[in-house]
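Page 37, continued from 36.
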């Protein structure tokens, strides 16, 4: 039987909160591609099945993703890949010559494995939500130096390098479009890809001197905008007039952005249309930042930034770190966000004060008075937001919102 890949979540998925409340870890973006898309590119020709924590697989995985759920009967020869892995050519090499079973380990985390027969059955136990690699028999353990996403800020840290890597990976199979646009100034044009049906107005400056710029299909870049590589602009996104998009920035599909953005990731379906600074940050999906929303990404004393994650204070060892924001959040005009802030999913923020550095999911913020955001109200708002993009809010979506609401309720001890 032909071998297959199982892309899985491990029991430490919550270390990537709040970015993964509504999606599996391998759907996070780093560079041009999501972590899953990197795996699919590097392992082309091998079917990829997916595994996730149960509440995701029961609500959205089966119908919202192209891959099928993991079934141990699908194959008797499996490559297991942790969804946190940032795949690269060196990681691929471990699976080029497959004979005996092995596991790949870094920092006490199993990042991959090659298993057959009995070991697959030992690993897969329907009574347990996650795989237990300690149950395996006669497997070689190999230490590897592969990058993986341990905390949310790792996505920001690796983003610039991954734009380079993804650009080189994609350019092997995609004809890079180097069409010229009237009145658009380009530096290092050979390092710029502009997709089909893009509209780039005069007086746009694309500077790929320090890294590639990848503008995907159906994008609109308004005049007097500057974009510095490495940078990615996703399909059907628009960059508003006078925007300043600096290096190491990824803006995913169906986004509208403006103002000043540096070294940040906006996953998809999110808007930051107006003036204001976003730096060294990660925004999830279906976010809207009001005009003037600005974050700090550097402390006045230049010290390492500590964050509150899962009820623990963690030293990120980073000097620059801005905002990590979960899906479905909204901010009002002139919202001020502190250095190293973590804002959970489904928060609604309007305040003339600096927002608290940590906000639990489903929090309603009125001048820093915190209350629980009513579940029915945010569902009704999300229906409206979806409809504006031609998307139908389903019963599965409703169940997922309820699951995440209940899962995060213990955090809301205001």
């Amino acid at each position: 039987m032909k071998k297959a890949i199982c892309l899985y979540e491990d029991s430490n998925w919550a270390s990537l909160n709040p970015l993964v409340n509504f999606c599996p870890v391998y759907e996070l973006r780093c560079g041009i591609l999501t972590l899953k898309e990197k795996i699919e590119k590097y392992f082309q020709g091998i079917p990829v099945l997916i595994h996730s924590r149960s509440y995701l697989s029961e609500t959205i995985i089966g119908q919202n993703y192209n891959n099928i759920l993991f079934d141990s009967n699908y194959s008797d020869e499996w490559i297991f890949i942790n969804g946190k892995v940032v795949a690269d050519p060196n990681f691929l090499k471990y699976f080029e010559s497959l004979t005996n079973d092995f596991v790949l380990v870094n920092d006490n985390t199993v990042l991959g494995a090659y298993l057959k027969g009995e070991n697959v059955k030992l690993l897969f136990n329907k009574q347990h939500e996650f795989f237990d690699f300690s149950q395996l028999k006669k497997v070689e353990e190999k230490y590897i130096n592969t990058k993986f996403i341990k905390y949310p800020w790792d996505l920001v840290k690796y983003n610039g390098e991954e734009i380079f890597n993804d650009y080189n990976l994609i350019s092997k199979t995609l004809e890079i479009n180097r069409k010229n646009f009237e009145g658009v100034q380009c530096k290092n044009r050979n390092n710029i890809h502009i997709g089909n049906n893009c509209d780039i107005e005069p007086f746009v400056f694309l500077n790929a001197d320090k890294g590639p710029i990848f503008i995907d299909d159906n994008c609109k870049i308004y005049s007097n905008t500057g974009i510095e590589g490495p940078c990615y602009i996703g399909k059907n996104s628009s960059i508003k007039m006078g925007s300043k998009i600096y290096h190491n920035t990824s803006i995913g599909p169906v986004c509208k952005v403006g103002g000043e953005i540096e070294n940040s990731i906006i996953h998809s379906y999110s808007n930051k249309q107006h003036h204001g600074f976003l730096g060294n940050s990660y925004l999830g999906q279906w976010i809207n930042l009001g005009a003037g929303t600005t974050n700090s990404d550097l402390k006045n004393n230049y010290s390492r930034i500590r964050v509150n994650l899962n009820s623990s204070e963690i030293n990120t060892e980073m000097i620059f770190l801005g905002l990590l924001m979960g899906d479905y959040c909204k901010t009002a005009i002139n919202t001020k966000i502190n250095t190293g802030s973590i804002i959970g999913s489904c928060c609604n923020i309007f305040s003339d004060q600096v927002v608290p550095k940590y906000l639990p999911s489903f929090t309603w913020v009125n001048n820093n008075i915190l209350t629980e955001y009513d579940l029915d109200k945010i569902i009704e708002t999300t229906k409206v937001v979806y409809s504006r993009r031609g998307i139908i809010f389903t019963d599965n979506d409703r169940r997922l919102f309820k699951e995440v609401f209940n899962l995060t309720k213990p955090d809301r001890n205001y």
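The mean pLDDT is 94. Flag for discussion at group meeting. The two ends are 55 Å apart (CA to CA).
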